[in-house]
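# step 3/5: fold
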Amino acid sequence: MSFSVSEVSSHPLAAYGWDEGWEGVFAPHRERGAVLGRVVRVDRGLCDVVTAEGVVRADTEFVVPRDPMKVVCTGDWAVVDPAGEDPRYVRTLLPRRTAFVRSTSSKRSEGQVLAANVDHAVIAVSLAVELDLGRVERYLALAWESGAQPVVVLSKADLVGDPVVLAHLVRDVEGTAPGVPVLTVSALAGEGVEELAGLVGRGTTVLLGASGAGKSTLANTLVGADVMDVQAARDVDGKGRHTTTTRNLLTLPTGGVLIDTPGLRGVGLWDAGHGVGQVFSEIEELAGDCRFQDCAHEAEPGCAVLVAVEEGALPVRRLESYRKLVRENQWIVSKSDARLRAEMRREWKVKGAEGRAKRAAKRGWGE
């Protein structure tokens, strides 16, 4: 089935991201009388789903897989029981196009989907506190891995009184975010909001950041209404309470939809090897000129990355952050891959033995 431009724009779910692609995937379910809808909120086994007939409350009991990556999430397109059923259930989910995933604090190192079917990932970073570039790089790695286009928003720009200082901060973030738009925004003063709205005015955007980053204020400004509670951040550290406690999908007056999320304390990587490579694209490019294909950029001869550091072309902080995220991601992946885990342990033992031998040689014990 094909739709004309007018039919697409006038579809009841067009404002929520519906398109012909979703209709095509849903077609077999429609033949059985099911209803298509998009999940706008999930809460304790129930979810609110916006459908052509309006918002309905549905039970997620039939979509409780062993894999936590497949639980119902805000942004999902859901197949729901038809009107008249009581209670109504989500029977299944349409395959996700993208998903923003982080690792949980669980000892089992499970993945947690924060938002599904996202086109843009807006990372809110407060200028009320000292910049944590390493944390920005983590968010960016997860955003690139999700399949969404990252955007960094330096919020509360009105708190930086010196334009020279503000320009310096922007350059620092741009240096950690190659290929990513970096915007300075003051939601209270209305500065930069129009440019941000233009970037996220089509498709689905997820708003991410720590508590106190100003996400709820940004959400209210973009939506054009006080839909999210806002609390003042502490003057000491710029941190605020978790004013957003659930992930909510909201329509934007300029087009598109916004998923607001609670402040994130932990931003653990989850199988984000491609994303890490994208964030540190300059290091990946330099690595192509290393003498050894498996160069770890530690102390190997002919390492182009280390040469770039020595010449001042690559900041030491970038290389250290790259190493840290690569190691973390390898460890997360290894927890679900026994063969890789065994290989990593053997590699650590070899490096440990080499290190001990070098220390012994320096002390003259190896003679």
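# step 4/5: annotate
Confidence is low (pLDDT under 50) at residues 230-244.
# step 5/5: archive (pending)
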